[in-house]
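Figure 2 data, in text form.
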Amino acid sequence: MLNPISQAFRKAKQENRAALLTYTVGGDPDKKTSLNILKSIAESGADIIECGLGHGANIGDGGAIQDSTYRALSGGIKTDDIFEIIEDFKKDYATDVIIM
């Protein structure tokens, strides 16, 4: 049996299209908005969503991700909060989430 990521790529290949993988920083700018962002991404057709865990040493990630991480961390987001956001998301959506 294929893992969910392999299944997403296989499905895209069968549909003769590229798989769409997206990225968002979990908890940016807050829990509610972050959950809504995940939902919006899924509803837009993403095959897999990569959800980043904010940390203070993301200097190589570029300005947009640094800013997103700063907003999330400044708002008090913790790793457990991101897991809760993803758990809430998975209650209604089948889109797979990779935690970065």
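Caption note: The chain has four helices and three strands.
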